[in-house]
Amino acid sequence: MIEFQSIDPILSRWAQDNQIVWLSEYKGYDVRTYFLNESSSEPIQVWVDPPSDGTVQIHVFQYKLGGKKKRSEEFSIPVSHLYETLNAALELAAAWKSSGVPASNFD
Questions:
Q1: What pLDDT, in 10s, does the model give residues 47-71?
Q2: Which of 6, 17, 32, 58 places its Cα 20 to 30 Å from the Cα of 51?
Q3: DSSP states of 15-82 as a string?
Q4: Closest Cα to residue 72, out of 64, 63, 60?
Q5: pTM of the predicted model, to two decimals?
């Protein structure tokens, strides 16, 4: 939790504003991630890396279950732009979800 302590207030406020629930633990590790379309065969995952030197990485990833095909986008931004970039990441994920273009069309 210490890794995310400096950005957790921003993540919490953003999640509340967007009705998103962050998952904060995976196999005993601290994480900050959520899924769109989780029950689909091509779920979309968004996650945030712990900040490093005032910079944060946001990842948007869609993959085909049981396959190697995927598409992804990364944002590397100053912590001060975290809230706005989380909005951009959610918009991208929602566009992928609604596009009807499967991740299997990408590498």
A1: 999 999 999 999 999 987 777 768 9
A2: 17
A3: HHHHT---EEEETTEEEEEEEESTTSSS-EEEEEPPPBTTEEEEEEEEE-TTSS-EEEEEEEEEGGGH
A4: 60
A5: 0.86
- Per DSSP, 100 falls in state -
Residues 74 and 61: beta-carbon distance below 8 Å? no
The dihedral of CA 36, 37, 41, 42: what is its sign? negative
Tokens of 87: 């909005």
- Name, in order, each residue with C-beta under 8 angstroms of 46's C-beta and a sequence gap of 6 or more: 33, 34, 35, 36, 58, 59, 60, 61, 89, 90, 93
d(CA 107, CA 92): 18
The residue assigned the tokens 């995976």 is 26
